[in-house]
Amino acid sequence: MTNYNPRYLADLTIKPIVTEKATLLMEQNKYVFDVLPKATKPEIKAAIESLFDVTVTKVNTLRLPRRKRRVGRFLGYKPQYKRAIITLQEGDSITLFPEV
User: Rounded to whole angstroms, what are the CA distances from 5 to 12, 30, 43, 99?
Assistant: First the structure.
């Protein structure tokens, strides 16, 4: 296991995804996060393990296509991002909604 800078790891994950599909995956102990496009699977695994103090068994990543955005007659693109589906060890969980 390579030693990563904890400050660098914290910046790899952008946000957790809370969609209908992502909440269905939570029942299977899988969590979905947006991560930086340059992040690798070992870096994502190390980041999630250090941030949430859990054991990651599997990391699946996908790069979604860039989305077109139009402003008047000008055509542009939103920034591309990468999505990671994290599978945790049985018994571990991440609390995305802490009780207020």
Answer: 11, 25, 10, 31
Q: Do 31 and 44 touch, CB atoms closer than 8 A?
A: no
The pLDDT value recorded for residue 100 is: 60
Closest by Cα among 44, 33, 49, 30 to 90: 30
The count of other CB atoms within 10 Å of the CB of residue 32 is 20
CB 50 within 8 A of CB 3: no
- 6-88 folds as Alpha-Beta Plaits (3.30.70)
Mean pLDDT by 10 residues, the chain (100 residues): 74 91 93 93 93 93 92 91 93 77
